[in-house]
TrEMBL record:
SUPFAM superfamilies found in the cross-reference section: lambda repressor-like DNA-binding domains, Periplasmic binding protein-like I
Native source organism of the sequence: Plantibacter flavus
PROSITE patterns xrefs: HTH_LACI_1, HTH_LACI_2
Listed Gene3D superfamilies: 3.40.50.2300, lambda repressor-like DNA-binding domains
Name the UniProt record assigns to this protein: LacI family transcriptional regulator
């Protein structure tokens, strides 16, 4: 049989359509999965051009796509699923609480959380978002394992999206993030309340909202206590144990009686440096951390006083924001308080 005699697509012969998905239709029609979803489900209010609709309908007919049973019953245009796409939080020692908080809050309101942990792989991220759109999720939480600015994946603009522990200036997307400045103020206030007036701050060298926010909180607490800010008491350090250890000599030589560390890992390194010098915590030097990374803070000797990053509440607040359950909120990122966790290092 010559090539001209081959049966054309769509000719009368049985089609194997069981594996055809919305992504296949989207690829054939040259549109997004969200566009296919809107056309197939005839979603009210969707702004889709006639040419795009035509291409989708032609691709549906050509491929023999049949919407799944779930999609056929979606009277509200969405399912009882909420998606959560994360870069690495499921594998980090404490940020997985974001998933826990989101899952509990979703259950509370009759939704099931669909979680995709992409490890920062862009292709996997795109695939996960496409699959969630195909399943007609109520919306998507997009979360990162540390607080920073992101570039929003284009597919997220096709559905209701809330950014969790990250933000995208100018995107118009709502964001739920830790109140870094309040956390820095709370940490410093704990040292002030213990009677310290010469308080060092070991800050990170990595540009981030945590770097600027925690420093602003430190300065604010000093100002409120009428303690002069001394730039010579702010020490830059890499944000891990080695950074805290390396900063020990400068902190001790500064004459400080207390130190606020950018995070618990820095505090752990400082513990090592102070111990080598025969100094006792908190008798010779009070130490305050940040993060409440339980595998560190609760197991140092003495246990580390710190400020918690509110990961559980970030996840829960993200779900509430997505479902429109909270009262009217400001246009900027929603700030979640970072509570103090007092132990025995202050």
């Amino acid at each position: 049989m010559s090539s001209t005699d081959q049966p054309k697509p769509g000719a009368d012969h049985p089609k194997n359509t069981s594996g055809i998905t919305m992504r296949d239709v989207a690829k054939a029609a040259g549109v997004s999965v969200a566009t296919v979803s809107h056309v197939v489900n005839d979603k009210p209010g969707s702004r889709i051009g006639e040419d795009a609709k035509r291409r989708v309908h032609e691709a549906v007919a050509e491929l023999g796509y049949r919407p799944n049973a779930l999609a056929k019953t979606l009277s509200q245009g969405h399912s009882r699923f909420i998606g959560l796409v994360a870069d690495a939080i499921a594998t980090t020692p404490f940020a997985g609480q974001i998933i826990h908080g989101a899952q509990d809050e979703a259950w509370r309101h009759g939704y099931v959380l669909l979680v995709a942990n992409t490890d920062g792989n862009t292709a996997a991220e795109d695939e996960a978002i496409a699959m969630m759109l195909e399943h007609q999720v109520r919306g998507i939480l997009y979360s990162t394992w540390f607080h920073h600015e992101i570039t929003v994946p284009e597919a997220l603009l096709q559905t209701d999206t809330v950014l969790v522990d990250c933000y995208a200036a100018g995107s118009g997307l709502p964001a739920v993030v830790p109140d870094e400045e309040q956390g820095g103020r709370t940490a410093t206030e704990a040292l002030l309340a213990a009677g310290h007036r010469r308080i060092a701050f070991v800050n990170t060298t990595t540009p981030s909202p945590a770097q600027t926010g925690r420093l602003a909180g430190y300065r604010s607490a000093l100002q409120a206590a009428r303690v002069a800010f001394d730039d010579a008491l702010v020490f830059p350090a890499s944000p891990e144990q080695e950074g805290g250890y390396a900063a020990t000599t400068a902190v001790v030589d500064s004459g400080a009686t207390a130190v606020f560390c950018h995070n618990d890992r820095v505090a752990m390194g400082l513990y090592d440096g102070l111990r080598e010098r025969g100094l006792r915590i908190p008798d010779d030097m009070a130490v305050m951390g940040f993060d409440n990374q339980d595998v560190i803070a609760a197991h140092l000797r003495p246990p580390l006083s710190t400020v918690a990053l509110p990961h559980y509440e970030l996840g829960a607040a993200g779900v509430r924001r997505l479902l429109g359950l909270d009262a009217a909120l400001p246009a900027g990122p929603q700030l979640i308080a970072c509570p103090a966790v007092p132990r025995h290092s202050v």
